[in-house]
Amino acid sequence: MKFELPEQLIFMKNDKAIQKHSNEPMTGKLCVISGATSGVGYEAVKSLAAGGANIVMVVRNENKAKVIKKEIEARYSVVVAYFIADFSDLKQVEKAAMDILDKYPRIDILINSAGIHSTKRKLNKDGLEMVFCVNHLAPFLLTKLLMNRMIESSPSRIIQVNSEGHRFNGLKVDDINWKKRFYTGLRSYGASKTAQLLTVWELAKELEGTGVTINAMHPGAVKTNIGNDNGILYRWFLHNVTWHFLKDSKIAGDALYYLASASELSNVSGEFFNLTTLEKPADHALNQENQKKIWSLSIKMTGLEKKDDE
Ligand SMILES: NC(=O)c1ccc[n+]([C@@H]2O[C@H](COP(=O)([O-])OP(=O)(O)OC[C@H]3O[C@@H](n4cnc5c(N)ncnc54)[C@H](OP(=O)(O)O)[C@@H]3O)[C@@H](O)[C@H]2O)c1
After folding, report:
1. What tens digit of pLDDT does each residue of 261-280 get?
2. What CATH number is given to the structural domain containing 54?
3. From the CB of 39, is ligand 1 less than 6 Å away?
């Protein structure tokens, strides 16, 4: 008898699936990418620029952005621009979105890759738990603010860099800030990624018929800088143990190129991909009741509610 993994463990098999590739050109397309200064986002910048796309990076570190702009423009015949936004500060995200809208009449691709994993509970200056803010609220806000421009530019695609880490769950709608529970890094990471998935399904519904698709993806277990700013023990373990098991982050850039360009995906929306393999996320990330709750909460916490009233 052939052994089949249970549905919720299929991701282990998909990790080893053969990755799909796209050679379809992206010449002249405008791609907005957050988290572009390192790891997955940086790989996306390189692969999309190699395919001919112009790049708008949304970053928190201007020095890193300047170096990458110089490197990519020297290597490829594309234009690279950047806007500054620390994703732990929603006001900065809003400002960057407004500046991008002012400057660019069309946006073809939005990739949200900025993300963190923190072993300690930290709050931002507005009292929001940092991981939830950076990994979910900020990309949600950026997406909502750029969405109409993407509809005007359709066909266009939005890709949220999510994670198999959503399976750690941790999302409790009445305790987003981890005031009532014992905080752990993995569970807070899982909560932020679960919340993001729940909003992706809702955004996909909102975008139906507009020519804009939105999907989420796991970029592989790849060697990047994520977690590097945690404590010394964590860092030691990351560098001396974890990194040996991780793959080259180039696979994430290739997967994002495929998701951004392959014509076979032009009508695929509201899905989760493990790299390039379509996959069913964890059941808790498909919970309809939480979907509605997280949607309203995200609208409220990002201040979009007030904008709708204006
Ligand atoms: N690596 C993996 O195996 C893996 C697996 C699953 C999912 N992911 C997801 O992949 C995405 C990218 O992570 P990575 O692995 O590429 O890690 P990384 O190398 O640490 O890159 C993270 C990026 O996010 C940016 N960033 C972090 N905090 C920010 C903030 N407050 N404001 C603005 N930008 C900020 C970083 O900017 P700086 O350069 O300034 O630090 C960097 O560009 C994340 O969403 C992560 O959850 C990664």
Report:
1. 999 999 999 999 999 999 99
2. 3.40.50.720
3. yes
